[in-house]
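Explain this record to help learners:
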Amino acid sequence: MTEAMPSSIDETHAVLGRAGYVADRSLATVLYLSLKMQRPLFLEGEAGVGKTEIAKVLSSQLGRPLIRLQCYEGLDIASAVYEWNYAAQMLEIRMSEAAGGMDKSAIAKSVFDDRFLIKRPLLQALESPKNVAPVLLIDELDRADEAFEAYLLEILSDYQITIPELGTIKAEHPPIVIITTNRTREIHDALKRRCLYHWVGYPDAARELQILANRVPGANDRLSREIVAFVQRLRSDADLFKNPGVAETIDWATALTELDRDALDLETVSDTLGVLLKYQDDIEAVDGERALHILEDIKGGTKEANHVG
């Protein structure tokens, strides 16, 4: 069932909250404006901070289909927008020739018909399934080639696609567009100008603790506080190739809960660092003495916080 669009920033914040997404007011504000103004929302930030999840939340909470285009190097129009079913077209041509009675121009026209069009995510999003504007997620745009960005300009400006054989297809109900990038390269200004922009950063300790409470309810309070303190310390102090994102924090808390741990200790940290860190150089840099120092510091900090609470 399709839900009405939120009518205020507070309502937008509540929509995110109902799905367990812990957002600050600045994100709720730009998301509300994106929905109100029917402008794409361009979300930039490190991997694992919750950019993709926003599109999933909108889809589930507003009752709209989610259409996802996962970008990658070499992504082209045939994979992202449309392509013709050449095998079916050839079969149609041979059947028409065998039956006779159709000239070549009529046959050529008949094969470039909607029946033979294979619709990819971008075209699907413009055709509004069930007359409901879907949520279109263009995920990790920075992985695609720059030439693909140029093709997106028409779609993001006018919500339309031109197919030479069929003409221009324009959306009756423009999709809700969420674009994400991990900033592995810069996206052109021409595309950014068509969007509202928001940087999704790492959450502070209080917000990350709330995220764990929502996503890993089985983790006890002490364990959650120590996990968040450890991860926050890594992000601020450790010179890592890839800082752990919120997704890794959730995975670590889930893993430790599965192991029936109620607090961090050096052996547990050492055994499970591969859940939190995804590069061997980072694991080697943290494992051992550095992990011990962090544990000693946060143990005192969490004890003090619990005493004050």
Observations:
- The longest helix spans residues 289-308.
- Confidence is low (pLDDT under 50) at residues 302-309.
